[in-house]
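Narrative of accomplishments. A recurring question from our advisory board has been how the design workflow behaves on a single, concrete structure rather than in aggregate. To address it, we present the structure tokens for one chain from the evaluation set, followed by the sequence designed for it. No filtering or post-editing was applied between the two.
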């Protein structure tokens, strides 16, 4: 599988709500992407990837089988364990076939239990 970077998640989304003085904290997020895929059949996966002082970690959000040109809604709830040294959070797609072409039309990441504000929408009509 090949991994394709989609977007860097702004810190206002993942760091908001961090407990004061916490060196490590857990947070749950609803993540969703609407992707159009063409060019080949196979599996497409949506991932949240984050880098901290220990390593680069990836959490699978959802996966779908693509049997022809079409769209897939990939969504799920993920729990991330952050440290105070988080450098970056990003969203990626994994494609099972290098011939697959994609367009991510919508992408959301929202802390569970919060109201979705316009600034929580990462990408629109990308």
């Amino acid at each position: 599988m090949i991994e394709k970077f989609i977007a860097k998640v702004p810190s206002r989304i993942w760091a908001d709500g961090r407990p004061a003085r916490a060196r490590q904290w857990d947070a749950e997020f609803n993540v969703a992407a609407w992707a159009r895929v063409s060019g080949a059949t196979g599996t497409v996966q949506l991932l949240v990837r984050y880098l901290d002082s220990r390593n680069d970690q990836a959490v699978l959000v959802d996966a779908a089988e693509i049997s022809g040109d079409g769209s897939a809604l990939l969504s799920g709830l993920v729990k991330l364990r952050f440290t105070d040294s988080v450098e970056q959070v990003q969203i990626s797609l994994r494609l099972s076939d290098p011939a697959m072409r994609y367009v991510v039309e919508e992408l959301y990441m929202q802390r569970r239990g919060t109201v979705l504000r316009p600034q929580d929408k990462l990408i629109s009509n990308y």
